[in-house]
Design brief:
Its EC number is 3.4.11.21. By secondary structure, this protein is of the alpha/beta class. The protein has helices at 3-16, 21-34, 206-209, 212-222, 257-273, 306-315, 321-324, 332-339, 386-399, 419-426, 451-469, and strands at 38-40, 54-60, 64-70, 80-86, 91-102, 105-113, 126-135, 142-148, 181-184, 229-238, 243-245, 251-254, 283-289, 342-346, 349-350, 373-375, 404-406, 429-434, 436-438, 445-448. α5 (257-273) packs across α11 (451-469) and α9 (386-399) crosses α11. Bound molecules: zinc ion.
Length: 476
């Protein structure tokens, strides 16, 4: 298998294992652990525990993850090369009380999450995945269990064309006409009989709030009693697997390209760069955040304290256990490190759609399989500037990765990324980049299969070469 195909296949496996942000973090953790990364906890002090020439990761809410490597020649105050991305994608989430019966059907109440192209969710074979909090009878502890039900369970049915009075338009009410059906002949869930001995419940039990048979499917999948399910966060996902497509396998047809392409490529790039870790003088870091699709403002989003907190900890460590045990470095090291650091904010870009080419700026139409796209916006929806482009050019030349450029039309709306908010929070140089794709935010998107390897190589080059190239690009 060619290395290009190997990386494309690696991505397919990644996305097929990762229907939710919790699964993304779990998949990334598995890849890091296999590569020898050690898990850290935010609940403990890291002083005296971290060493040079070592690899670590830490998670928050199990839906955001930061992984980093410490170069063998790292000195306090040295810069940090960061790739940032996001773990979430537009989806539907099961409501806290979801059991609906209508016309003999059992339906599941769902909330829209993010700005999905929602009409693409109709007539798809959907299922459920997420995390379930379960009481362990032996210990009494409540633990989080990941769940991914591997069979089509739900479907949002379109209206037959024969019954549709307005055939030319496809408009629908997101509350009343966008409900998945999950079964037939369902019985209303009965409230448990009141008896004096029944334990007090502050909130109705899960089995009373959701379809009883659905809860049985979930408890069977987890191998637990439904009485021990305390709560859950369940998302709908398309059971059709991510796959190669096109005459020469030039495409990837897949859900969640935005932004699991970054999650996969950044993790791979960081792992591959550890071959030369003993020679490196910086900290190399990947930060993958939840909640980008809804604005990033949460305890674990890009607008949270997660990345700043980790950077504050790291810049105050000497990575010499003898010294760390007694003291930490002054916070002034944080500022010097930030001034020498760089963030590549990586999120998917818009490849030109041949049927809508007039929606793209005439001279900036990124093509699939022609490399990562640097995103530029004068109004700072993307924060790319010249020093960043110079740096990326040099890194891409070293790894022979072609790059493309993108600006939006002046008469078009523009998306944004985690780039501006992280740049503003930390005051570090930042550039926005991403692989080109079609149909962003559809349930089924398309990108180029050869671009996966290119982005991996670019990130690997960034982590390996940043500290030799950066001091030669003089800004201030
Ligand atoms: Zn995105």
């Amino acid at each position: 298998m060619s290395s290009t195909l190997k990386q494309a296949q690696g991505f397919l496996n990644f996305v097929n294992a990762s229907p939710t942000p919790y699964h993304v973090v779990d998949t990334v953790k598995k890849q890091l652990s296999e590569a020898g990364f050690k898990e850290l906890s935010e609940r403990t002090n890291w002083a005296g525990k971290l060493k040079k020439n070592e690899k670590y990761y830490v998670t928050r809410n199990a839906s955001s993850i930061i992984a980093f490597t410490v170069g063998g020649k790292y000195e306090p105050g040295n810069g940090i090369s960061i790739v940032g991305g996001h773990t979430d994608s537009p989806s539907l989430r099961v409501k806290p009380i979801s059991d609906i019966l209508k016309e003999g059907y059992a339906e599941v109440g769902v909330e829209t999450y993010g700005g999905g192209i929602w009409h693409t969710w109709f007539d798809r074979d959907l299922s459920l995945a997420g995390r379930v909090f379960v009481t362990e009878p032996e210990t009494g502890n409540v633990v989080s269990r990941l769940i991914k039900i591997d069979k089509p369970l739900l479907r949002i049915p379109t209206l037959a064309i024969h019954l549709d009075k307005e055939r030319s338009k496809f408009e629908f009410n997101k509350e009343t006409q966008f409900r998945p059906i999950v079964g037939l002949d369902a019985k209303p869930t009965e409230a448990p009989k009141k008896d004096g001995d029944k334990e007090f419940q502050s909130i109705k039990a899960v089995v009373e709030r959701h379809n009883k048979e659905l809860i049985q499917i979930i408890s069977k999948d987890l191998g637990v009693s439904s009485d021990n399910i305390e709560d859950f966060e369940l998302l709908l996902y398309d059971t059709q697997k991510s796959c190669l497509g096109g005459m020469k396998d030039e495409f990837i047809f897949s859900p969640r390209l935005d932004n699991q392409v970054t999650c996969y490529c950044a993790t791979q790039g960081l792992i591959l760069s550890t071959d030369k870790l003993s020679e490196q003088s910086g900290i190399q870091l990947v930060s993958l955040f939840d909640h980008e699709e809804i604005g990033s403002l949460s305890a674990q989003g890009a607008n949270s304290s997660f990345l700043p907190d980790v950077l504050h900890r790291l810049t105050q460590l000497t990575f010499n256990p003898d010294v760390d045990l007694s003291s930490e470095l002054p916070s002034s090291y944080f500022w010097t490190a930030m001034a020498k650091s760089f963030l590549i904010s990586s999120d998917m870009a818009h490849g030109v759609n041949p049927n809508y080419s007039e929606n793209y700026e005439t001279l900036n139409k990124p093509k699939l399989n022609e490399g990562p796209v640097i995103k530029i916006n004068a109004n700072q929806r993307y924060v790319t500037n010249s020093p960043g482009i110079v740096l990326l050019k040099k890194l891409a030349s070293l790894s022979k990765v072609p790059l493309q450029l993108f600006v939006i039309r002046n008469d078009s709306p523009c998306g944004s990324t985690i780039g501006p908010m992280v740049a503003a929070k930390l005051g570090i140089r930042t550039l926005d980049i991403g692989n080109p794709q079609l149909s962003m935010h559809s349930i089924r998107e398309t990108c180029g299969s050869e671009d996966i390897e290119k982005l991996v190589s670019l990130f690997e080059s960034f982590f390996e070469n940043y500290h030799t190239i950066e001091p030669k690009i003089l800004v201030n």
